[in-house]
Amino acid sequence: MPHDLARAALQGLLTRTSVPRDVVDYIVYGTVIQEVKTSNVAREAALGAGFSDKTPAHTVTMACISSNQAMTTGVGMIAAGQCDVVVAGGVELMSDVPIRHSRKMRKTMLTLNRAKTLGQKLSLISKIRPDYFAPELPAVAEFSTSETMGHSADRLAAAFGISRLEQDEYALRSHTLAKKAQDAGLLQDVVPFKVPGKDTVTKDNGIRPSSMEQMGKLKPAFVKPYGTVTAANSSFLTDGASAILIMSEEKALAMGYKPKAYLRDFVYVSQDPKDQLLLGPTYATPKVLEKAGLSLSDIDVFEFHEAFAGQILANLKAMDSDWFAQNYMGRKSKVGAPPLDKFNTWGGSLSLGHPFGATGCRLVITAAHRLKKEGGQYGLVAACAAGGQVNDAVLHMGP
Amino acid sequence: FAETAENSFNTSNIFSLGYACRNISTSSALHSKTHVSCDIKGDVAVVRFNTPNSKVNTLSKQLSAEFTDVMNEIWANEAVKSAVLISSKPGSFIAGADLNMLEACKTAQEVTQLSQDGQKMLEKIEHSPKPVVAAISGSCLGGGLEVGVPAAFDMMLTGRNIRADRAKKMGLVDQLVEPLGPGLKTPEARTIEYLEEVAIGFARGLANKTVSAKRSKGLMQRLTDYAMALPFVRQQVYKTVESKVQKQTKGLYPAPLKIIEVVKTGLDQGNDAGYLIEAQSFGQLAVTKESKALMGLYHGQVQCKKNKFGTPQKEVKTLAVLGAGLMGAGIAQVSVDKGIKTILKDTAQKGLDRGQQQVYKGLNGKVKKKSLTSFERDSILSNLMGQLDYKGFEKADMVIEAVFEDINVKHKVLKEVEAVIPAHCVFRPVTPPLPHPQHSIAAASKRPEKVIGMHYFSPVDKMQLLEIITTDKTSQDTAASAVAVGLKQGKVVIVVKDGPGFYTTRCLAPMLSEVARVLQEGIDPKKVDAISTAFGFPVGAATLIDEVGVDVATHVAEDLGKAFGERFGGGSIDLFKLMVQKGFLGRKTGKGFYVYQEGVKNRSVNSGMDEILEKFKVPPLSCSCSDEDIQMRLVTRFVNEAAMCLQEGILSNPVEGDIGAVFGLGFPPCLGGPFRFADSYGAQQLVDKLRKYEAVYGSQFTPCQLLLDHANSPSKKFHQ
């Protein structure tokens, strides 16, 4: 169950940071597809991980940026003087999503509860038809437009004229870089997880550098038969949980911690969920840079959520287009595209996988690790989410 | 002739793969082309349609000629392996035949010739040795559809609009391309470019055989094909279709029957015979008076979709509707779905609930038909604010009043509203068919220049017409603003001068009075209905009274009778009054001339009426009781009154008169409206009929001066 994964992430965090459990004032977790039994998964995981039952916990949701929301919620609570130490994280269990009975069946079952006599019960049961048993599966589709995200990504890629070849190349790059980073031991944010009854998982298991020929053989997954988005150039859905420790600077220094990174600033923006569903980073990046008083060239490390290769490339093109900036963003000029040598150099969601609710913390901590490794000053994290929403944050290595 | 309907395939793009022709002809006329251009991209030729200075492409002589040239060049060019047909105009492939071209044809032979030229071209494409892909974005109708898709069956008869996804299911098109959002160009420009790219990919695929254009037939399709090959089955199918068409058109529209004949010939005697008779029939049909009438209506409708008062100073963004009855809620529905914030106000919670439910039901019906998503429905409904007080009226740009039809109530409401609305706000009493002269409402207003009347037709979401009534004091800008709102609501708008009954009600009243007279003469309601629908009215005359409401009809007859005297006589008004007394108000009370029951389709005549009709029975007068006479008695009074409205300046032109009568009152579309009918039937003949009935019945049939003028000089026509 999801809270097991979250529990492991929390315990991993405690072990890594040696922070005493009772110092933690509050816990916030992000998740997308909720397990009904643990709808406040933050609380269940915290209790399970041995936190004090006096530490309150709540769960937030904002599609793929749910754990971004968890982190910024924590930051907000600290800024508001509510608390000093917050643990934020995210969890997603894609391998066991809740599947519901059909509405007709649910209605029958609920009425059955209220039926008093055996006769009433039998008459209700006799009304059940075979179609009542058809289950309702959750879909990765926008509620407002009924369009699946992959379909939207394919249209986005077409709108920006991104070819299949470019997309496959980018996906291959992601896998290759992730493999390199994994082999070099750079992905140190991973905590081993013992699956009950099975072996311990010690590393990301979705990294599969393939060849262009192999990828070229795949058929389009969404817009058939002429689309460009395939299984190989899309991020894959996986199980995962993440956790991060957030403190006010004074508290951290007082407790003798050296911060891994400072959160300098962040923004949330949203736009049209149909045609610009995955174009958020283009809108948010110039905004957060302005807010932080920086320019694109100040950034040493870019860490963007890779929902689809086509989506990343479309964003890069949009950010590099004056026409787009003027006509759709109301800006005088483009912000510019991030240079690829600073961009997702340890792989990304395409190769590492995308457990919806947990990805945000991974992006932030990877950016921090990359800044440290490469001696950079500023990192920029961006992630888009269903509903046409997006979060952008600037990290800073500190004084 | 249904294919001239002006609407479209919707916004999505379709492209169709068609296999085509053997004939290699080598004429390559190199004169400059203005309608069709051709680009060679590698081994694929891209043919672009672009009618200059027009929003849509139409199949004109020039376009056809240039297209033929281009295709011949393509077939002759060795380097070209396949072709893509596409429009340079986003949203329009080819919207069908050029109406102006057809109207310019004097004889059936001319049209037949045009049609045959077109057929030859299409046949060549159908059998082209090089694959041809039609990339269709937007409306693709009539001949345009044939260029894109050489085969259409069901569509031929009904002329309906098919959404792209339906077209794919029907096998009309092979692939769909979804419209794109913003990229490095505008969505429209990029979408059409993308459509072209995808189409080129398919054309290439077809040429090198990596893609197959064969449409796999389902089991049902194969069974149908098998059955249709049997002559016996075919005969049965023809029979069924013919009787169905006969029933629906009453034989008044020649086109559907001709179409069946053409299909029959094509299937039974082969393609060549089919093509020949198709071209001949098309030629004959194009010059029928029905075709002229329908084309006239089309042009009239286009004219009534323009705002002759210009752009209003202030766009109406917030609208307030007073009264959540059938009318008020209907107006709210057609406003919210165009993005206008609408306040729906009523005085009682119960009435308000009913109104809100009506709006919801109307929109939800569209969800069920899949023309809206449930999400769109919800976001449209967020434009609707139901309330019992005047909160927010200070932001209203326009107030539409649809309260109970009582001049005192109207005056009271006007006073209340004027206390809360801003200075620029327009006040528009909605006018159900009752003849309250607008100036009497304007008279009570502090700002009469801002008062304008509107006559919507129930059900508002279905009826296309809106009659706007201006008084002497109404300002130009107020009129512009009212027309703009009407057009935004999707209405066909006519603007008339104030006067009792305005235009539409005034024309209808004498006809209904005559209906009453006919009923008094002992003709039963079913017969009256049959006679009037046989003439082309979509709703029978007796049923019409039930639909309007007997109480309303009484009220109208009484008021207009006072205003116009004998001319509105004929039937006895006491007949209606007694019906009202007995509670026979028509459909709304479940009883009128007929009995209406929920779920019962074949309604029966209300037996309670026997006694009433018996009481008012008058002996039929000789010489005027044949079916044709009855039809003419109804129609001549209608036409005479319409002409009177034009004569008095209530109407500003005959076009609006025709549009108002057809779209608002159901005047037979095949006749094109009262003025078109007067032209085609002949003013002299009309006057003769009127004089004949005048001699028998009296002055209600006295022809008006304008008709007499037209009768005296045969060259005078309402429509040139």
TrEMBL record, chain A:
<dbReference type="InterPro" id="IPR020615">
    <property type="entry name" value="Thiolase_acyl_enz_int_AS"/>
</dbReference>
<feature type="active site" description="Acyl-thioester intermediate">
    <location>
        <position position="64"/>
    </location>
</feature>
<comment type="function">
    <text>Mitochondrial trifunctional enzyme catalyzes the last three of the four reactions of the mitochondrial beta-oxidation pathway. The mitochondrial beta-oxidation pathway is the major energy-producing process in tissues and is performed through four consecutive reactions breaking down fatty acids into acetyl-CoA. Among the enzymes involved in this pathway, the trifunctional enzyme exhibits specificity for long-chain fatty acids.</text>
</comment>
<comment type="pathway">
    <text>Lipid metabolism; fatty acid beta-oxidation.</text>
</comment>
<dbReference type="GO" id="GO:0005783">
    <property type="term" value="C:endoplasmic reticulum"/>
</dbReference>
<feature type="domain" description="Thiolase C-terminal">
    <location>
        <begin position="257"/>
        <end position="395"/>
    </location>
</feature>
<keyword id="KW-0808">Transferase</keyword>
<dbReference type="GO" id="GO:0003988">
    <property type="term" value="F:acetyl-CoA C-acyltransferase activity"/>
</dbReference>
<keyword id="KW-0999">Mitochondrion inner membrane</keyword>
<comment type="subunit">
    <text>Heterotetramer of 2 alpha/HADHA and 2 beta/HADHB subunits; forms the mitochondrial trifunctional enzyme. Also purified as higher order heterooligomers including a 4 alpha/HADHA and 4 beta/HADHB heterooligomer which physiological significance remains unclear. The mitochondrial trifunctional enzyme interacts with MTLN. Interacts with RSAD2/viperin.</text>
</comment>
<dbReference type="GO" id="GO:0005743">
    <property type="term" value="C:mitochondrial inner membrane"/>
</dbReference>
<comment type="similarity">
    <text>Belongs to the thiolase-like superfamily. Thiolase family.</text>
</comment>
<keyword id="KW-0496">Mitochondrion</keyword>
<dbReference type="GO" id="GO:0006635">
    <property type="term" value="P:fatty acid beta-oxidation"/>
</dbReference>
<dbReference type="InterPro" id="IPR020613">
    <property type="entry name" value="Thiolase_CS"/>
</dbReference>
<dbReference type="InterPro" id="IPR020617">
    <property type="entry name" value="Thiolase_C"/>
</dbReference>
<keyword id="KW-0809">Transit peptide</keyword>
<dbReference type="Pfam" id="PF02803">
    <property type="entry name" value="Thiolase_C"/>
</dbReference>
<feature type="active site" description="Proton acceptor">
    <location>
        <position position="354"/>
    </location>
</feature>
<keyword id="KW-0472">Membrane</keyword>
<dbReference type="GO" id="GO:0050633">
    <property type="term" value="F:acetyl-CoA C-myristoyltransferase activity"/>
</dbReference>
<protein>
    <recommendedName>
        <fullName>Trifunctional enzyme subunit beta, mitochondrial</fullName>
        <ecNumber>2.3.1.155</ecNumber>
        <ecNumber>2.3.1.16</ecNumber>
    </recommendedName>
</protein>
TrEMBL record, chain B:
<dbReference type="Pfam" id="PF00725">
    <property type="entry name" value="3HCDH"/>
</dbReference>
<dbReference type="InterPro" id="IPR008927">
    <property type="entry name" value="6-PGluconate_DH-like_C_sf"/>
</dbReference>
<comment type="pathway">
    <text>Lipid metabolism; fatty acid beta-oxidation.</text>
</comment>
<keyword id="KW-0443">Lipid metabolism</keyword>
<dbReference type="GO" id="GO:0016507">
    <property type="term" value="C:mitochondrial fatty acid beta-oxidation multienzyme complex"/>
</dbReference>
<dbReference type="InterPro" id="IPR050136">
    <property type="entry name" value="FA_oxidation_alpha_subunit"/>
</dbReference>
<dbReference type="InterPro" id="IPR029045">
    <property type="entry name" value="ClpP/crotonase-like_dom_sf"/>
</dbReference>
<feature type="domain" description="3-hydroxyacyl-CoA dehydrogenase C-terminal">
    <location>
        <begin position="501"/>
        <end position="596"/>
    </location>
</feature>
<dbReference type="GO" id="GO:0004300">
    <property type="term" value="F:enoyl-CoA hydratase activity"/>
</dbReference>
<dbReference type="InterPro" id="IPR036291">
    <property type="entry name" value="NAD(P)-bd_dom_sf"/>
</dbReference>
<keyword id="KW-0511">Multifunctional enzyme</keyword>
<comment type="similarity">
    <text>In the N-terminal section; belongs to the enoyl-CoA hydratase/isomerase family.</text>
</comment>
<dbReference type="Pfam" id="PF00378">
    <property type="entry name" value="ECH_1"/>
</dbReference>
<dbReference type="GO" id="GO:0016509">
    <property type="term" value="F:long-chain (3S)-3-hydroxyacyl-CoA dehydrogenase (NAD+) activity"/>
</dbReference>
<dbReference type="InterPro" id="IPR006176">
    <property type="entry name" value="3-OHacyl-CoA_DH_NAD-bd"/>
</dbReference>
<dbReference type="InterPro" id="IPR012803">
    <property type="entry name" value="Fa_ox_alpha_mit"/>
</dbReference>
<feature type="active site" description="For hydroxyacyl-coenzyme A dehydrogenase activity">
    <location>
        <position position="467"/>
    </location>
</feature>
<keyword id="KW-0276">Fatty acid metabolism</keyword>
<dbReference type="GO" id="GO:0070403">
    <property type="term" value="F:NAD+ binding"/>
</dbReference>
<keyword id="KW-0456">Lyase</keyword>
<comment type="similarity">
    <text>In the central section; belongs to the 3-hydroxyacyl-CoA dehydrogenase family.</text>
</comment>
<dbReference type="InterPro" id="IPR006180">
    <property type="entry name" value="3-OHacyl-CoA_DH_CS"/>
</dbReference>
